[in-house]
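My current task is to audit a protein record that another person submitted. I have pasted the whole thing underneath without changing anything:
***
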Amino acid sequence: MLRIVADENIPLAREAFGAFGDVVLAPGRKIDRAMLADADVLVVRSVTRVDEALLDGSRVRFVGTATIGTDHVDLAALARRGIAFSAAPGCNARSVAEYVVAALLALEVDLGRELRGATIGVVGVGNVGSRVATLARALGMRVLLCDPPRAEREAGFAGVSFGVVVRAADVLTFHVPLERGGDHPTRHLLDAEAIEQLRPGAIVFNSSRGGVLDDDALAIACAAGRADAVLDVWEAEPRPSAAMLGVVRFATPHIAGYSLDGKLAGTRMIAAALAAFLGAPAPPAETFHVPVAAPFLEVHASGRAAVRTAVERVYDLRADDARMRAALADAGGVPEARGAAFDRLRRDYPVRREFAGHEVRGVVDADARETLAALGFDVV
């Protein structure tokens, strides 16, 4: 029997990987060399750094990450060791896009105006960014796309430069990997100089990777009232500074992609990749099917209020924001306690489902019905 070490935050890990061997679950940040000494397979999420230091002395021959990003994995080190690797591209893209929608609708309440007609700049137009663009259009927003690597590869890509999108966007949202080098580095892509070019009152979203933004420079702009921010990832993660937390509009603990649907998709994709590597049957599809507990939403409202009500009933972003602020306030100024609180929020995250699978009833006006359907709801 294989020995499989997996992050405890991967849902249905025992059910998905148990057919292949003995499954040991552990907190992602505590997976270390000793734990891998007699492991054959390692399955992680984004908080585990997989590199030579972790793998030295192990017999691991397959590494999977149940995430869309791979910047936490030293792919060159795996190649040198002949270790097979698989990620789960696109698994939680819909979840992140719906997080952005929930934040946009919550912002409309705080700002006292709809964002219909406002310009949203989507930086990074891959699995996540493309879905964000689609859902933003469903909300009636004007969308500008910015993805220099895609623009280089695809002659017909309808994108604009980063400088243009920074100056033109009312909302700027990032969906890029963290790249420290290469032709298109993204570390501090939004730095102090770029922040100076933002439109007054522009709202910056980051649900990609901490470090893509210069958090300190953004905090100064937010404190001065020149910008606003919705942050799910943090440069100092898992210990975001109290100063940064105090000036952002909405703060969440790296959970934008944490819908149960997205996480289950990641588990399924890695289980299928491991099965292919072993030449074994993949777990049956029903292994990963969890019905929506309360699929019927009675929404007796019209217009934007109907859209907002349906979204909030499925995902209450403000509740996540409140939990994070309370947990970190209780931790005080002790960095270790703040980090532990941040990780507990992720470990104990409540079940969240995506819009699909929810049936909305009671909405009579055509515009709201059309918007809800475009967001993925089943409108009856």
Q: What stands out?
A: Residues 93-251 form a domain with the Rossmann fold fold (CATH 3.40.50.720). The mean pLDDT is 96. The first helix runs from residue 13 to 17. The longest strand covers residues 2-7.
